[in-house]
Design brief:
The structure holds two protein chains of two kinds. Chain A is mainly alpha-helical. Helices cover about 70% and strands about 0% of the residues of chain A. Classes of the chains: A mainly alpha, B alpha+beta.
């Protein structure tokens, strides 16, 4: 009888997950050429245009709506010199790399390694990376940071953490638990090296487009955030700043409380930070979900939820998105005035996300308590 | 730099008798529309006549230059903008703009000429008078014609002469003939965009802050109850 060992599964899992992503990239190219609805995300065209400006000796910020690190545009210059799909290939490689990092972390934490297949065979990250979103680079950096912290390779952890914060602001919320493990010098160096180099090269516009724009961003167009409609209605009122601050407080409080209560378990703390940050943010799009979904496989082996309960929570999460997407579609593509319904759906989605997080917190068993249970 | 003709008035004479027609329609719904312009130059139009469509857009909508650039190769026309376009600002923080559409075919202008331009609605200020939609009126485009053989300095009633870029590369200015009343449309184009209800701001703000606060308190309670020891 053939024995299907975990090692063989891994030998199959990674190549299969890469091939599926590659197939999606090829299909995406076909759809873009032959159909009205395009497969490739608009952001990918923004990245490519910014890379083109770099190849012409100009600033990537000459591309309107390019609000990312210049490193990303530099990374994608082969889109211009070699092939326009280079970036997508890079993103799917980082996606599979994220799966490998999850696998390694699960091995180190002594938990079920097959859970990494929840990322590797998950259609959401497959679709996101093959459409040309760069989220997989960030997930690889964050997971790499956690892995290096786990094996106490602190210099590498500092470097990867600094790069991840440079790429997107939200990992800065991990600063408190991570700072407790790094020396102050390494911590400061990690956060300042890449930004300093980009500041020298691109000046103030780099700081504005990569950081300040996101910190002060008030996107009044409809999005998943529970604050969207409130910010739209008050955008030009004298209450705008006060309400913006009020909207920031729950996020800040939850980040501090989760750091305080769960900091011994870095992976879980980072997951909570990210989920809270995204759910309570003033702007929330579906790309942001990738930020905490990449950390979920590290949390799942520690949950005492049954499969049925887990699937129930997953369905609830999808239902929350569907309830929001329906009125949003009718607003944007059919021209109905569904602002009030979108507002209600945004609050409903927040309630669902909060409920799911409460269930995760209540059913989470850290490694220590699992070891204690085994000893007993 | 004006294009100089050979001073012969005959080549311009044909313009007086031209009766091109222009029909514009707005397709799709919601915030993403298409303006479809069909121009019929007439069978007596000489083959070397070039057409230019000039659109004057209100600040309530925008045309994405990057989207247009990617489409122009497929659709056989190029667009020149008179100003940079901000893709994200709401309507009251932007201003009107104009675009010049040049058919990019090397040979004669297609007849009929069909130009489809994707436009996108901007968000507007919330309404405080109970209106749930704001009307947006889009002027019909102007049709300009040009031919190498004619320098139209002389009178060409009912048409007028207008200076405009010769091509989409905008390196020179030509004297174009603006055709009067070519439009078959009986009414200008208009659309309605949804706007937020400003009169509900107290309800929305209070409701949002209460729900987010409750969720925050519940989550804090759960975290403190199940904290790692």
């Amino acid at each position: 009888m053939y024995s299907f060992t975990p090692e063989i599964k891994v030998c199959v899992l990674f190549p299969v997950s890469f091939v599926v992503r590659l197939a999606l990239v090829v299909y995406g190219d076909y759809q873009d050429r032959n159909m009205v609805v395009k497969y490739t995300d608009i952001d990918y065209h923004v990245f490519t245009d910014a890379a083109r400006f770099i190849t012409e000796g100009q600033s990537p910020y000459n591309r309107s709506t390019y609000r990312y690190t210049p490193l990303l545009a530099w990374l994608l210059t082969p889109n211009i010199y070699l092939t326009v799909v280079f970036g997508k290939l890079l993103f799917i490689v980082c996606d599979v790399l994220s799966g490998l990092l999850i696998y390694k972390l699960l091995c180190l934490r002594g938990t079920a390694r097959y859970v990494s297949s929840l990322w590797l065979l998950n259609p959401l990250p497959m679709g996101v990376s093959s459409r040309g979103n760069a989220e997989s680079i960030l997930s690889a950096l964050v997971l790499g940071t956690l892995l290096c912290m786990e094996v106490r390779r602190l210099t590498w952890a500092a470097a990867l953490y600094g790069l991840s914060v440079h790429m997107k602001i939200y990992p800065v919320t991990y600063a408190l638990p991570i700072a407790l493990s790094l020396t102050p010098v390494a911590f400061v160096k990690s956060l300042t090296t890449a930004p300093f180099c980009c500041l020298i090269r691109y000046g103030w516009v780099f700081l504005h487009e990569t950081y300040f724009y996101h910190l002060t961003r008030r996107d009044i167009r409809h999005n998943f955030s529970p604050y969207f409609y409130m910010l739209y209605l008050t955008a030009d009122s004298r209450w705008s700043q006060a309400l913006g601050l009020a909207a920031f407080l729950p996020q800040l409080i939850l980040l501090l409380v989760s750091s305080w209560t769960f900091h011994p378990d870095l992976a879980f703390t980072c997951f909570l930070h990210t989920a809270v940050f995204v759910s309570f943010n003033k702007v929330c799009t579906s790309q942001y979900f990738m930020w905490y979904l990449s950390l979920l496989p590290l949390v799942i082996p520690h949950l005492t939820l049954s499969v049925k309960q887990g699937l129930g929570l997953l369905l609830l999460w999808f239902a929350g998105q569907a309830v929001w997407l329906a009125p949003a579609y009718f607003l944007e593509f059919e021209g109905y005035n569904t602002f009030f319904l979108i507002w209600l759906a945004g609050l409903f989605f927040l309630v669902i996300n909060s409920f799911i997080l409460v269930q995760i917190i209540a059913h989470y068993r850290s490694r220590k308590s699992l070891d204690r249970q085994k000893a007993e | 730099m004006h294009m100089k003709g050979n001073g012969d008035q005959e080549p311009c004479f044909f313009l007086k008798g031209l009766q091109p027609s222009l029909y514009v329609e707005l397709s799709h719904k919601g915030f993403h529309r298409e303006v479809v312009t069909t121009v019929e130059l007439g069978s007596e139009t000489p083959a070397d006549v070039r057409a230019l469509l000039v659109y004057r857009w209100p600040r309530d909508v925008y045309v994405d230059p990057y989207q247009v650039a990617s489409l122009s190769h497929q659709r056989g026309w190029q667009m020149l903008f008179n100003t940079a376009i901000d893709l994200e600002e709401p309507a009251h923080r932007t201003s009107e703009f104009s675009t010049y559409v040049f058919p990019s075919h090397a040979g004669p202008t297609p007849n009929p000429l069909k130009v489809t331009i994707p436009i996108h609605g901007r968000y507007h200020k919330p309404s405080f008078d109970g209106k749930t939609f704001t009307p947006v009126h889009i002027e019909l485009p102007e049709l300009l014609l040009w031919t190498k053989k004619c320098t139209p300095f002389q009178r060409l009633e009912p048409h007028t002469v207008l200076d405009a870029p010769c091509t989409a590369s905008n390196t020179s200015i030509c004297s174009w003939v603006k055709i009067q009343n070519p439009n078959k449309n009986s009414v200008p184009m208009s659309l309605h965009l949804p706007v937020g209800d400003g009169s509900t701001v107290r309800l929305i703000s209070t409701g949002t802050l209460v729900v987010t606060l409750i969720c925050c308190v519940v989550l804090c309670h759960s975290m403190l109850k199940h904290q790692l020891r």
